[in-house]
UniProtKB/TrEMBL annotation:
PROSITE patterns: THIOREDOXIN_2. Its EC number is 1.11.1.24. CDD domains: PRX_BCP. It catalyses: a hydroperoxide + [thioredoxin]-dithiol = an alcohol + [thioredoxin]-disulfide + H2O. It comes from the Bacteria. Gene3D superfamilies: Glutaredoxin. SUPFAM superfamilies: Thioredoxin-like. Residues 4-152 form the Thioredoxin domain. Thiol-specific peroxidase that catalyzes the reduction of hydrogen peroxide and organic hydroperoxides to water and alcohols, respectively. Plays a role in cell protection against oxidative stress by detoxifying peroxides and as sensor of hydrogen peroxide-mediated signaling events. The active site is at residue 46. Belongs to the peroxiredoxin family. BCP/PrxQ subfamily. This is thioredoxin-dependent peroxiredoxin. The lineage of its organism: Bacteria, Bacillati, Bacillota, Negativicutes, Selenomonadales.
């Protein structure tokens, strides 16, 4: 499968969100979207990443950008994660990994010496026309939000 690159039209999707509604990417045409994929709610790296996005919320809003987080976790886990860390953005549930597959972030990973399939931490910046402007793969959480803000 060919990986999505800057200049590609972002694949549309419809997923259940933490607010209980089905959301589609196309509903945010006209705004920049920071679409980030992460492995699991309430794990150290994912918590740090979510909190950094939370802490940059006003800067992102000033740039007319919205944040959407995607993992395979169920909505119940997302709701607890949002409540525990006061996250002001939607988390989307991709239980079958279909959207992760469309975006090329469903990968074989090495966990404690065992090969497992999982989401590779990745961020896609999608412009107001629905075109991918930047792709970050194998994201290192430290300093990531600064990179995102700079590119918006």
């Amino acid at each position: 499968m060919e990986l999505l690159a800057p200049g590609s039209v972002a694949p549309d999707f419809s997923l259940l969100a933490s607010n209980g509604q089905q959301v589609s990417l196309r509903q945010w045409l006209g705004k920049s979207v920071v679409l980030y994929f992460y492995p699991k709610d309430n794990t150290p790296g994912c918590t740090q990443e979510a909190c950094e996005f939370r802490d940059a919320q006003s800067q992102l809003e000033a740039k007319q950008a919205i944040i959407l987080g995607v993992s395979r976790d169920p909505i119940t886990a997302h709701t607890k994660f949002i409540g525990k860390f006061n996250l002001p953005f939607l988390l989307l549930s991709d239980p079958d990994g279909v959207v992760a597959g469309q975006y090329g972030v469903w990968k074989e990973k090495n966990m404690y010496g065992k090969k497992v399939m999982g989401i590779e931490r990745s961020t896609f910046i999608i412009d107001p026309q629905g075109v991918i402007s930047h792709v970050f793969r194998k994201v290192k959480v430290a300093g990531h939000i600064e990179q995102v803000l700079k590119l918006l």
